[in-house]
Amino acid sequence: MCILFFKFDPRPVSKNAYRLILAANRDEFYHRPSKSADFWDSSNEILSGLDMEEGKEGGTWLGISKKGKWSALTNYMQPKIDKNAKGRGALVSNFMTTDLDSFSYLKKVSTEGHLYNGFNLIAADLNTTKGDVIYYYGNKGAPEPFFLNPGVYGLSNSLLDTPWKKLQYGKQLFTDVIKQSQDLAKEDLVQELIKVMNNQDPQLPDPAIEDQGKDYILPIMNKYAAVCVRCPDYGTRTNTVILIDAEGHVTFTERTMLDADINQWQTSSYQFKLQT
């Protein structure tokens, strides 16, 4: 399970404004093997964390490239999982390496959506002559991807902007922070967004989550109904913040859990400029 919030404005009026502000949590079993965010190879072209689970190596939940490709994935919460379905993490990795634009890629994915368990996928081209272009597709929603207008969005384990209480609450906290974004130093903005993503206040009751998750979600509902999930062996193990300013400078910050220990965390940051 994961949650993310983002605001984008392809052509900000002020030089101090950001084209994209994103804050995201990766929720996963603490012991599932993965690599922290880093560039994939010596070309320093694609930046992401990587899943290292046997059979699903190389998949990811969130990535960005210097060419301006950005993609993020969340699972769609469903009571029953098809263990023979295709690995969803490859959907992000494949977009990062394809020559297809975001719409064409999601259009292709939509024809194969039935081969996967439920997912939501965002794909973006952030450095085009037309300005930043972002599309969304969820295989439990509309049959084709759709274009996202500039604005603020929230995504968890249902369709985009489904009004789960924790999503609405987190989105309001996120919005309150980004309203101050032009007045905050970059480092302070990053820390304020990480603080939002570590909010553990449960937003209950929430019949929408209960209805979608059925009986299996009830035992952990009190923990799951918060922006930051904290269960004994499962929960939020990575916070990611991405800032892209008006001139295409990218700041990518990841705070990740070490050794499956909720008391040990490491923060790393990468900065680069999108290629023109």
Automatic annotation (TrEMBL):
One Pfam family it belongs to: TANGO2
Origin superkingdom: Eukaryota
InterPro entries: TANGO2 (IPR008551)
Signal peptide: none
Cellular-component GO terms for this entry: cytosol; Golgi apparatus; mitochondrion
GO BP terms: Golgi organization; protein secretion
Protein name stated in the entry: Transport and golgi organization 2 homolog
Native organism taxonomy: Eukaryota, Metazoa, Chordata, Craniata, Vertebrata
